[in-house]
């Protein structure tokens, strides 16, 4: 089974940047499509960004498009979420997820499609 561990969260002022990491063990990103989700207190877990197994296809939620960038480093078995121009409404626990899909260039944007999840990392953006 693959294990996912997020890191890089913290407290940042509005307009600032953070880079989240998702390290995988017990597996390799070459076998998975990957995604980032977030969940604010009392809210549903929602989609943020996704990337295909090949790394060639990405997709972003409208709320983060143009500000966030998802990427993977296969050699390091790590996925990243670069977050720029952060807003208070970005405050949430951020989760990485893996999908053991067959298709190299396919990505997934709903939580129910993912099989493996990390425990999350807190991101707090102050106004």
Overall average residue pLDDT: 94
Binned strand content: over 45%
Helicity range = under 10%
DSSP helical segment count = 0
Please state the structural category.
mainly beta
Count of strand segments: 11
Q: Largest sheet at a glance?
A: 7 strands, mixed
Rounded to the nearest angstrom, the distance between the terminal CA atoms is 40 Å
Instruction: State the order of secondary-structure elements, H for helix, E for strand.
Output: EEEEEEEEEEE
Catalogue the unreliable spans: none
Coarse shape = globular
Radius of gyration: 13 Å
Description:
By secondary structure, the protein is mainly β. It is about 0% helix and about 50% strand. The chain has no helices and eleven strands. The termini are far apart. Strands 2, 4, 5, 6, 9, 10 and 11 form a seven-stranded mixed sheet that branches. Strands 1-3-8-7 form a four-stranded antiparallel sheet, with no helix packed on it. The model has no long low-confidence stretch (mean pLDDT about 95).
């Amino acid at each position: 089974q693959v294990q996912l561990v997020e890191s890089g969260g913290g407290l940042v002022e509005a307009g600032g940047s953070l880079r989240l990491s998702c390290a995988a063990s017990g597996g390799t990103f070459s076998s998975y499509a990957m995604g980032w989700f977030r969940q604010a207190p009392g809210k549903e877990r929602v989609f943020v960004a996704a990337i295909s197994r090949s790394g060639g296809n990405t997709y972003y939620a409208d709320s983060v498009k143009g500000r966030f960038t998802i990427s993977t480093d296969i050699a390091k078995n790590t996925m990243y979420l670069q977050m720029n121009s952060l807003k208070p409404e970005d405050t949430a626990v951020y989760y990485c997820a893996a999908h053991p899909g067959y298709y190299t260039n396919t990505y997934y944007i709903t939580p129910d499609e993912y099989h493996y999840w990390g425990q999350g990392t807190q991101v707090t953006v102050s106004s």
